Please model this.
Amino acid sequence: MAHSFKHPVTDSGPDESRQQRPIRSFVVRQGRLTKAQRRALEVLWPVYGLDGPAAGSGHIDMQTAFGRDAPLVLEIGFGNGDALAAMAAAEADCNFLGIEVYPPGVGAALQKIEQAGLGNVRIMSDDAVDVLQACVADASIDAVRLYFPDPWPKKRHHKRRLVQPEFADLVADKLKIGGLWHMATDWRPYAEHMLEVVTGCDRFTNESAGGDYVDRPSWRPETHFERRGRRLGHGVWDLLLRRY
Model:
């Protein structure tokens, strides 16, 4: 368990910030922490938070981290934690590891976890690629869920999209055989990009009968970003891939 909240980007020193870094799929937007969120980061992070690569942590023994051996579900970019908390409550037999780099979102999620009395959730505030590479054992995850990631719509920013061939291979490494990778987006060009990437990876089979998109599975709650997208007239596209 972590003993204090240390954000991987905002708490880094000036020398580290000048070092060459790989392209990230996110930009940390500080935002203003509410008093409740700040309290959650100070009081609840030691209970539910896990140190990641930014704090020098390596491989994490998930059975020890959760205090039990159960199927492991990873949600990448959980936002304010609404979906994460709802899924963890609905799937109490699973362990949920949530990753988010936005401090107010982490604080909000910690509040929801505490309020719902969820003992099957742990939080990390690090880049998901770094976490997968450094902290998660191969063939150890039962499901990866990636909902409404930043689509980086401008062409010059497409290289920042999280879903790339290299990332698909990394997810395949970490999933158990038969494990599921579930993605959703309200940005059609990104949905098409996702489909192209996973179609090109021969380590997954598409669960869609048509080889493209599926209806929203029962385990995915409607998210804040989804509701916002619908208000803007966007469709929503779900992809469901099985590791083989």
The beta strands are 72-76, 95-99, 121-124, 141-147, 175-185, 204-206, 237-243.
